[in-house]
């Protein structure tokens, strides 16, 4: 009688009994190490450990140890499952090695997911055909022929729709824009919110525009978000021909420099184009700020041109009438301790003007050349922290004043901007000096105001630092 050790199945059984546990332990350690490193290969190794290695061991036991014929149905079923898992392993391994670790901006990173899905479907279809042909002896040649003929018929029937899909796939692959970019096409200008096989969705101020990808692929368009940090707008204005061009350009540039939408570390510029027309180039952070920046610039220019004595749109400013001047001087008279004679002598030397909402009236660190009294409106005092953040200090109303350090010629510690339209009365330094020379108590009150404002700024900065 033949001994057990002389049987071929014995060595296969011993090999599977020893090799399977050792393989499981080794693969477990490898998978744990890959998981700790965050590697994409951890999933393929897990597939080998959990499915392929046990299935392969079971298949060897059936064929070699128990000597079940390869044509038996259990063997074929097991081989089919093993082949399908090997297909999944191949797809997972290719995805982990080629695409998950692809550098940003490379062709592997730019491939749309739809291309990968189609490629996976083709690989799975071919793999299953090979499995059924090799293991089950199925004739798959006729099936591929039928599918090819059907594809040709469908392609001819749906060539317009297929053409749009192909255009969409090519557009996705090239990626001339991404979700969130601002584009300017023939029929729309706005932000890209969706790109699918057939069309691109662009959100504009008037709604959502859906543009077929075939139209985009056949036309030219501008991507306003690329390269980043180079977007700007151009605003045209008109002034009187008698206004000095240099003064107009300086005023326009100064207004544009104060816009909150201005791109950091960028400078606007203004030039004259002749016939009283001027163009101001304003660099912005993003196209989303275009409308707001343009509206704010034009609104502030209206106020700034009147303060500078320039005639925007060739229109004179008649706001500072004699009646308004007299009424404004009477309003500030108690603060300056003015009597009737003082009011009459001071009125010809004061200036009545306006600021628009959110416009800066006083900048921290500057030395004021005049005192500014609030006649109408509200003004917010602010300070700047160490890292440049804006800290609110207090709100000034009618009768309050700015520029208290005009006489001392010291930089102000606080800034100020208009909360709404603000009317102010401005008195030059020389006229203020003449007043305090005759009124010592007024000088003491101005000094006390400087100390109070500095204390308010210190408290506001301390509170902001504590928070």
Largest sheet: 5 strands, antiparallel
Total DSSP helices: 14
Number of domains: 4
- Indicate the percent of residues in helices: 40-55%
Structural class: alpha+beta
N→C terminal distance: 92 Å
Q: Return the average pLDDT rounded to an integer.
A: 82
The proportion of strand residues reads: 15-25%
Low-confidence stretches: none
Please outline what is shown here.
The chain has 467 residues and is an alpha+beta fold. It is 51% helix and 18% strand.
Polypeptide structure, described:
By secondary structure, this protein is an alpha+beta fold. It folds into four domains: 152 residues; 56 residues, SH3 type barrels; 76 residues, 2-Layer Sandwich (Alpha-Beta Plaits); 145 residues, Jelly Rolls (Sandwich). The strands form four sheets. A five-stranded antiparallel β-sheet has the order 4-3-2-1-5. The chain has a four-stranded antiparallel β-sheet with strand order 9-16-11-14. It has a four-stranded antiparallel β-sheet with strand order 10-15-12-13. Strand 3 and strand 4 form a beta hairpin. Helix 3 packs antiparallel against helix 5 and helix 13 crosses helix 14. The longest helix is centred in the N-terminal third of the chain and has 30 residues. The model has no long low-confidence stretch (mean pLDDT 82). It comes from Mycobacterium yunnanensis. This is Mechanosensitive ion channel. Pfam families: cNMP_binding, MS_channel_1st, MS_channel_2nd. Keywords: Membrane, Transmembrane, Transmembrane helix.
């Amino acid at each position: 009688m033949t001994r057990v050790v002389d049987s071929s199945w014995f060595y296969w059984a011993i090999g599977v009994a020893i090799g399977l546990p050792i393989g499981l332990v080794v693969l477990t350690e490898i998978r744990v190490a890959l998981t700790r490193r965050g590697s994409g290969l951890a999933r393929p190794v897990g597939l080998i450990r959990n499915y392929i290695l046990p299935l392969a061991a079971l298949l060897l036991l059936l064929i070699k140890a128990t000597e079940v014929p390869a044509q038996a149905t259990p063997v074929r079923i097991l081989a089919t499952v093993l082949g399908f898992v090997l297909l999944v392993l191949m797809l997972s391994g290719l995805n982990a090695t080629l695409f998950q670790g692809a550098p940003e901006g490379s062709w592997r990173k730019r491939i749309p997911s739809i291309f990968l899905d189609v490629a996976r479907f083709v690989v799975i279809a071919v793999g299953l055909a090979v499995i059924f042909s090799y293991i089950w002896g199925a004739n798959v040649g006729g099936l591929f022929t039928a599918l090819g003929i059907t594809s040709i018929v469908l392609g001819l029937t749906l060539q317009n729709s297929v053409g749009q899909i192909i255009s969409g796939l090519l557009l996705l692959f090239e990626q001339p824009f991404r979700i969130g970019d601002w584009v300017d096409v023939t029929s729309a200008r706005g932000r890209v919110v969706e790109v699918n096989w057939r069309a691109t969705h662009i959100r504009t101020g008037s709604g959502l525009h859906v543009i077929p990808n075939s139209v985009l692929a056949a036309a030219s368009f501008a991507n306003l978000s690329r390269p980043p940090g180079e977007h700007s707008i151009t605003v045209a204005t008109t002034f009187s021909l008698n206004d000095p061009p240099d003064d107009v350009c300086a005023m326009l540039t100064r207004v544009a420099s104060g816009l909150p939408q201005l791109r950091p570390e960028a400078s606007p510029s203004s030039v004259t184009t002749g016939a009283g027309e001027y163009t101001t180039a304003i660099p912005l952070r993003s196209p989303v700020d275009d409308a707001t920046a343009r509206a704010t610039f034009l609104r502030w220019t209206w106020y700034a041109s009147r303060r500078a004595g320039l005639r925007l749109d060739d229109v004179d400013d008649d706001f500072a009438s004699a009646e308004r001047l007299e009424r404004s001087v009477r309003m500030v008279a108690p603060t300056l301790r003015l009597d009737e004679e003082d009011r009459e002598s001071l009125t010809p030397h004061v200036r009545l003007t306006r600021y628009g909402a959110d416009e800066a009236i006083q900048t921290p660190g500057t030395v004021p050349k005049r005192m500014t009294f609030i006649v109408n409106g509200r003004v917010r005092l602010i300070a700047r922290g160490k890292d440049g953040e804006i800290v609110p200090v207090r709100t000034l109303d009618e009768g309050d004043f700015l520029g208290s350090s005009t006489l001392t010629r010291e930089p102000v510690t606080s800034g100020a901007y208009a909360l709404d339209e603000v009317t102010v009365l401005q008195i030059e330094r020389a006229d203020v000096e003449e007043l305090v020379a005759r009124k010592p108590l007024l000088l003491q009150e101005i000094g006390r105001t400087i100390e109070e404002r500095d204390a308010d700024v210190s408290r506001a900065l301390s509170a902001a630092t504590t928070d």
